[in-house]
Automatic annotation (TrEMBL):
Parts forming coiled coils: none
Superkingdom to which the source organism belongs: Bacteria
Main EC class the enzyme belongs to: isomerase
Function: Converts N-acetylmannosamine-6-phosphate (ManNAc-6-P) to N-acetylglucosamine-6-phosphate (GlcNAc-6-P).
Entry keyword set: Carbohydrate metabolism, Isomerase
Family note: Belongs to the NanE family.
Protein's UniProt name: N-acylglucosamine-6-phosphate 2-epimerase
Record pathway: Amino-sugar metabolism; N-acetylneuraminate degradation; D-fructose 6-phosphate from N-acetylneuraminate: step 3/5
Source species of the chain: Thermophilibacter gallinarum
Known EC number: 5.1.3.9
Catalytic reactions on record: an N-acyl-D-glucosamine 6-phosphate = an N-acyl-D-mannosamine 6-phosphate
Alphabetical list of InterPro entries matching this protein: Aldolase_TIM, NanE, RibuloseP-bd_barrel
Length: 229
């Protein structure tokens, strides 16, 4: 199996997820671009970000690959939910576009596979399948996505694969065992350097770290809770 050049440079590396949402103090494309550059200087191999303005601003600031997505809504499929969203992310400058790879219905009526095909027909951008289950991972691999991630797995683990508040290592190990040559990315609840190391030791191609690097409000709350305030 040949590995896409963007995926190849991520092997064994950390991807920083740089995101803020409406109402949050850091919610501004320039702030996100500065945060992304700071992460790049710290050694991040790529930046994962959401929203067209943030994708464009970050692409203009960093030299590492940009994984772009567009979140719309909060329920069902909200990570790059339609073909229109995916192509817009590519046009904004994303090197990789992340898509929800579940089998849930999408606003435009297309299936995941139809969106992948639509992107392939219109763009040479690489694709990342955001998955909740091993079935989703199989779907992403079958569709030919260059990267497949455990992004959506938390709260949806299969029976007998319970895990704590860290990354979903049971799903990761199952995916790596079934698809040893596919770039399987660990994302979700990677809160410490030890979590990241554990994911890589479990076979992750790369590890996405978001909140623990780029969300100071949450990081502060962890310390406050530990202090017993």
């Amino acid at each position: 199996m040949s590995v896409h050049p963007v995926a190849a440079v991520l092997r064994g590396r950390v991807i920083a997820s740089v995101q803020a949402y409406p109402g949050e103090p850091l919610r501004h494309p320039e702030t996100m671009a500065q945060m992304a550059r700071a992460c790049e200087l710290g050694g991040a191999a790529a930046i994962r970000c959401q929203g067209l303005a943030d994708i464009a601003a970050i692409k203009g600031r960093v030299e590492v690959p940009v994984i772009g997505l567009w979140k719309e809504g909060h329920d069902g499929v909200f990570i790059t939910p339609t073909l229109r969203h995916a192509l817009a992310c590519a046009s904004a400058g994303a090197d990789v576009v992340a898509l929800d790879a579940t089998d849930r219905p999408r606003p435009d009526g297309r299936t995941f596979e139809e969106i992948v095909a639509g992107v392939r027909a219109a763009s040479d951008v690489a694709l990342m399948a955001d998955c909740a289950t091993i079935e989703d991972i199989r779907r992403g691999v079958a569709a030919g996505c260059e990267l497949v991630s455990t992004t959506l797995s938390h709260g949806r683990a299969a029976a007998g694969t319970a895990f704590d508040d860290g990354p979903d290592l049971p799903l990761l190990r199952a995916a790596v065992a079934e698809f040893p040559e596919v770039p399987i990315v660990c994302e979700g609840h990677v809160h410490t350097p030890a979590d990241a190391r554990a994911a890589l030791d479990a076979g992750a191609w790369a590890v996405v770290v978001g909140t623990a690097i780029t969300h100071p409000t949450t990081i502060t709350s962890w310390f406050v809770a530990a202090a017993g305030e």
